[in-house]
Amino acid sequence: MPEGDTVFLAGQRMHEALAGKKLLRGELRHPRLSTLELKGLDVLGVRTYGKRMFTRFSDGNSLHSHFRMDGAWHLYRPGERWRRPAHQARAVFEVDDRQAIGFALHDMEFLPTSREDELISHLGPDLLSPEFDAAEAVRRLTADDSRPIGSALLDQRIMAGVGNLYRAEVCFLLGVLPTAPVSSVDASRAVALSRKLLQANQWRPEQITTGDRRVQHYVFERTGKPCLRCGTRVRSGEFETRFVYFCPKCQSG
User: Fold this and answer.
1) Does the predicted model carry a pTM greater than 0.90?
2) d(CA 110, CA 93)
3) Which of 51, 52, 90, 195 is catalytic?
């Protein structure tokens, strides 16, 4: 699942490539949107919120796309070979010097730009927003303090942007298992760590939580490898249909 920083970086790159340019090609390969003609519209800009992206056009509308588990936007030079199969393409935008291809996108909607906030009103504060409201994120996180912290961190209604990678790393840094209740952690620290890790990686494709490019993660996808702190073998298991990674010695609960 793409994390919030992945979506943010994709949005920034899309904005740099398309903003202020006219679409020479604009296709939406979705049953409900396939008849729309976007060719000739100017791209005004790209906005992201958590794991959602809004591409804004000069006709006063926006394309909303959700990355979910496998969605992605790729940028190419005209004529360059796509890195994913064409049948996965859900959106094809072309300007004079770039192609932007949206692969395996979900929840695509074409709506007035003025209504964008309606689609994100149920979400918690965006961890990468300059106006991030930490107090509101803490309030939402502690509203049900019996809930497992590993479940709460993934709930975009609490704060938007954390995926499975950062869930694992935040739990490790908090010293608790993902199954531990929210009441067992410092909620303010959990929010601050989530924001800190996403901010550290928002301008680069690598997602490094350890500060070391040689070993980028503490526990995520390190099953069977020694914990960087204590040397105990990192373990993994299924929790609420998703895999979690943890150190059985460094993490409790």
Assistant:
1) yes
2) 14
3) 51
